[in-house]
Amino acid sequence: MKHTGTAAFLLASVVGAVAVFGLTLLIYATFFQDFLAGFSELTPEVLELISRDQINIIAIVIANLAHGLLLATVITWGRFYTPLRGAGAAAIVAFLTEVYFLFTQYAIFKTMDLVSAVADTVMWTLVNAVVGALVAWILGRSVRRRSAPAPTRPAVHR
């Protein structure tokens, strides 16, 4: 099976970045925010001290693009070009990186407790499974299109 083209890889990365941002915003800002707020060990005064007055949009864009590139890279390298395989690969990457990040944070800082670390890991894994399926679908379409035999022209009889 051939590899994806550069345009398809970049498209899948950007779509993955947008999907990660959109799903994360939808899930965390609506359903999950109140749940996680109940587990913070920080006082409102401390939260105000460490929170920015304005979210840095450029940093958010960079972070999401990096994650979209990560998922597209893993899916391409592993050739996980079906939605199910892409979902599985993305879920594993998300789970392992989130366990590393959140449990390191849990061990060092009082920004969360164990229940919120586990819940956040589960939610992030689910978000990435959906995004991985989408990225794999885009990349898989490109591979199938590039691997398809060229159409043949009927012979002209003279």
Q: What does the secondary structure layout of this molecule look like, with pairings?
A:
Elements: H1 6-37, H2 44-50, H3 57-78, H4 83-108, H5 114-147
Helix pairs in contact: 1-3, 1-5, 3-4, 3-5, 4-5
Order of helices and strands: HHHHH
Radius of gyration: 20 Å
- As a percent range, the share of helical residues equals over 70%
The residue-averaged pLDDT reads: 88
Structural class: mainly alpha
Number of DSSP strand runs: 0
Number of domains: 1
Fold and architecture overview:
With 158 residues, the protein is an all-alpha fold. The chain has one domain. The protein is 77% helix and 0% strand. It has helices at residues 6-37, 44-50, 57-78, 83-108, 114-147. Helix 3 crosses helix 5 (114-147). The mean pLDDT is 88.
Short overview:
With 158 residues, the protein is mainly alpha-helical.
Key words describing this protein structure:
single chain; mainly alpha; 158 residues
